[in-house]
Amino acid sequence: MAKLKKPLLSLQAIGSLAKSISFRRSRSKNIAGKKPEVPDAKTLAQLSWRHMYQKAVALWHALSDAEKQEWESLARPKHMTGFAWFVSQALKPNPGLYLPLQGGKMQGSIDMDKYFITKLPEPVGDQDAASKKYHDDNLPAGGYTEGCKVYSTSSQTIYDGAPANLTFNSEDYDTDEMHDLVIDPERITIKTAGIYLITFHGHIQQNGAGERQADILRNTSIIARLRQAADTLT
């Protein structure tokens, strides 16, 4: 559509012709030029906000007349229209509006002062959210409850081809009488059912001939083994 202020062929035309050509005067001259095209930048951030804005507009049109009037009343003290105030709130990180914007549904109440949802149902699916109370109620009582740390204060000679039990003659701590310094000091007896982390730290002297090996046994069955070939290093 032409938006000229003077006839096109009068050599004094000013304005635009359709969306492609513009006419203007500069230094007593008439200049015809191509109208600049502003690119529609479509970055991920712009597309995201545009998407949410369109969702907010659709949600506004879905409101009843009474709901729109309520937004108008809230916006009036701020010198804004109800639509502008509604959209400004919809584009904030607000779970009460964000979920309906995306077509989502939720159960529970929204605590707008603390920005979280209360009274969530108990989780059923793998991706369901769980409250702190549900988490606390369903964890085993306490965390680390029973354990011991034992060690030997002296070196122990073990000959090649003649395995021997390591004797632990000292304790750092023992919460469940799992170790005895007199009877079977090489043994640790688990008395409380649970999952235990068993670790071993040993220092082996130089030996250039024999193979070095350390085993952890459970009821005479090997459950862990560390083996190193003959070496002159410790």
Structure description:
This protein has about 230 residues and is of the alpha+beta class. It folds into 3 domains: about 1-35, no CATH class; about 45-140, no CATH class; about 145-234, no CATH class. About 20% of the residues lie in helices and about 20% in strands. The protein has 5 helices and 10 strands, in the order ββββααααββαββββ. A 4-stranded antiparallel sheet has the order 1-2-3-4, with no helix packed on it. The longest helix is centred in the N-terminal third of the chain and has 18 residues, at about 45-60. It is elongated. The protein starts with a strand and ends in a 6-residue tail after the last strand. The model has no long low-confidence stretch (mean pLDDT about 75).
Helix and strand sequence: EEEEHHHHEEHEEEE
- Between the first and last Cα atoms, what is the distance in angstroms? 91 Å
Total strand segments: 10
How many domains make up the coordinates? Answer: 3
Give the overall shape: elongated
Defining key terms:
alpha+beta, 3 domains, two-stranded antiparallel ribbon, 234 residues, four-stranded antiparallel sheet, 5 helices, single chain
Question: What is the element layout, followed by pairings?
Answer:
Blueprint: E1 2-4, E2 15-17, E3 21-26, E4 29-34, H1 44-61, H2 65-75, H3 82-90, H4 95-101, E5 109-111, E6 116-118, H5 132-138, E7 148-151, E8 170-174, E9 212-218, E10 221-228
Antiparallel strand pairs: 1-2, 2-3, 3-4, 5-6, 7-8, 9-10
